[in-house]
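Subject: Carbonic anhydrase

B.,
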Amino acid sequence: MKILLLCLLLVTASSFTEAAEKMNICETGKMQSPINIDTSTVKRLSHAEKIISFYKPVFFKFTIEDGSFKAKPLIDGNVLIRNGKPYPLQEFHFHHKSEHTINGQPFPMELHIVHKSKDGKQMVVGVLIEEGTENKEFKELLSSLKTIQKGQSKSLQAPINLNELFSSETDVYRYVGSFTTPPCTEPVLWLIKKEPITLSWEQIQAFQHLVGTNNRSIQPLNEREISLTKIQQSSSK
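Prediction pasted inline below.
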């Protein structure tokens, strides 16, 4: 009985330690995100990598909570294919201000498009946002922010086509990092779109008014490499 009790205590202690380490990775992890992208150090990816986007117009349901915003697709079908391996779309969300910076420069907002493979591998496409012309793809979504309260969910009446954010071949900065919110899971493959998109001043203010500032500070690079690769749009419709 004493041996059994000792074994149970050891298992419990081990599980607690493992859980504590996972929570503590936000402070101790060596591959944390976001980072500053120094473009003078970026090199074209040396090995072959093929990333194809299969995005189509779908309806989303979004939820607002304290300091967070998430939009989840109501049907499956949107996916990124990396070297033949599918990463289905899980959700997208915004941060204000941007989490990643380019040569030390932050942007008003940043969009994260989160994907996950069947074996649990994570890949996130980051899209930096600057103030400019109104973004028609997110027009209904951002207009709806004026009519929803924190803690509520709402389904959009018009579909969103994420393909509209990309060209036929889109340059992206590539590096290995983490989620930017607890538990700060590592590793996550990040693809940061080189060219920003625009939202109007009114659209940016609508998001800021409801969610506030929800960005994480820049994390140490720790000898990680940042390379340049491409996302290609699928030719199939």
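Residues 2-28 form the longest helix (27 residues).

T.
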